[in-house]
Amino acid sequence: MADENEPVGDGITALDTLTREQLEQAAAKYNEDKQRFDVAPTAKQLLGPFTVFCLVLNRTIGSGIFTVPPKVLSGTGSVGAALIIWSFSGIIVMCGLLCWLELGLSIPFHLISEDGTMRKVSTPRSGGEKNFLEYIFKKPPFFITSVYGIMFIILGNISGNAVAFGIYVLIAAGCDPISDPLQRGPVIGLAIGALTVCASLHIFSRRGGILVNNMFAVVKVAMLLVIAILGFVHAGRTHLQSSGINESLDSTLNITNQNITSAMINTAMRHNFDLDMSFSHPRHDVGSYVDSFLVVIYSYTGFEQPFYVLSEVARPRRVFPMYTLLGMTTAVLLYVLVNVSYLCVVPKEAYTTIPMNTIDMAGAFFHDIFDSTNGDHMARRVMSGLIAVSIFGNILVLTFTAARVKQEIAKEGILPFSLFFATGHTTPWAWLQSRWRRESNMPTALKPGDIDIDDHLEQSPMAALTLHWFTSVLLIAVTSMLRPTTAYSFLISLYSYVNVSVIGFLVAGGLLYLKLDSYLRGCMGRNWVNKVSFKPWLDPLHAVVYFFAMGFFLFAAFAKPTKGSPYVKDIVGYWWFLVPAIGLSSLLWGMVWWLGLKGIEWNRRRRLDVRRTPYIEKDGDGNYVQKVELVEHEWLAVVDSELHEMT
């Protein structure tokens, strides 16, 4: 455990935690107008190792493994290059996870008095990269919080997956939402409905939402295993052989049509994995490869989810390293296996010759094995229904975790009515249970100012969940005039660029800065090397790899894809430079917000004062964890000299 003293001037000069006596005194003097208590879940309510594992898998396995493979195959032009991108992206994401583990299991630090000795201890808390960036970039006050916070509040959701949910539900129902403009309204309705159901579930029952999340994770792993097995069985050329397929792939790009036949499907493995053919006819434009890497890395995102709810996990230092790494390793292996399985069935010509044909590969996989050209295409429709189930689970888990981050952002006081959005409330299901049972030892509902640490009903950040729902629906509304497939592509590309590349670049760069500062200045600087609680093998290779990978994708995304690429405007429906341009501009949104906050302070002649003071205890492993946090927001009068400093 990190308990080394920090040098003077690193931000804390006095005790910044509460003793049990001070906590009780604060509760007795509670002022609802400017204070809130955020009480951690009880021991029975804390998330266990299996839930952490499922959070990673349920978020990682969404739409990407079904919709991204055809884009990557079309974007690279070869089977070998596509599989290399999937494999290397898995390595890059594992490096990102190691960065998150190093920072997440160390930050923040609090000064305590233990046995008469003053020392600083690590007490991890919820919030993920918000905490990392605030620790790395401390000054000026509220700046990095605004930059990250406004960006995450607006873009920290997967509205694109909600649109994809609507698309696949309609395909499963036998409709054509891709080319029929009349299906745009039903897609939007289903997307908003999915977001509403997920938010409502987490508002109604925290435990219920967690159980459903775990169920979806198990189902999705089983789905991928079935796909992998079916592909390998087909490759044996004895069972599950295709018959009755003879189809012409339509194109609007004046490209010669390619017929896909059962004979091609039954020999797909031999043809796709032939050493002389696997790397033949690759594309040569940088833009297509960069976009392919970005969409694959988007498909792998999910490792950051448990860090968003870290304060709600039992024994995080023991659980996180093993189960987050296990979750991501499982996802990477499954993804590579599924991609190989796809290519054991689907001829590569289906995507390399017709870049328009890139909606999903899983549907083509099931269609090629079980359907015939003149049949009802039931296998494709069933697979579309299963993809919709997978996407719904993806929306469910991010609703749970992202709302916690938005609650943490609200605690920093930068939002209107911040304390309202920072407040958790007893869930209706827990309250109803307490009313039905009426047992003498039944936990009680927390009221404003209550600090019953060990025995209280479950809580949910209802206001933050509502904020998350609102911003998700807002993005759907903004893109509602686009074709559903265009809206989906644009929203997930923007999410990937901002929440993966931009944030990953800042976090990995900040971590390298801490390491370099520690190397050059030692204990006279930030002294990171002596405070970190988790040190990965081959340190600092993980931070170097992730920093340079994210930095490359950040700027290489401006490279223009050439004609025939699946990422050109004629196919995706928008100019290639829009996503990186809007993504980088999202940094300015928070800067403008921060300037507005400074303007309010100047106009009021008052300074926003935010204090977050935790009460911490040791867990069963002897590591400190946060049990309660007192959040205080107050506008303090300032003198003229302070006004000049504020500007």
From TrEMBL:
InterPro entries: AA/rel_permease1 (IPR002293), AminoAcid_Transporter (IPR050598). One of its GO terms (molecular function) is L-amino acid transmembrane transporter activity. Keywords: Membrane, Transmembrane, Transmembrane helix. Pfam families: AA_permease_2. The keyword Translocase does not apply. The chain crosses the membrane at residues 46-68, 80-103, 147-173, 185-204, 210-233, 320-338, 382-402, 414-432, 462-482, 494-516, 537-559, 574-597. It comes from the Eukaryota. It is a multi-pass membrane protein. GO terms for cellular component: membrane. Its main location: membrane. It is found in: Membrane. This is Amino acid transporter. The lineage of its organism: Eukaryota, Fungi, Dikarya, Ascomycota, Pezizomycotina.
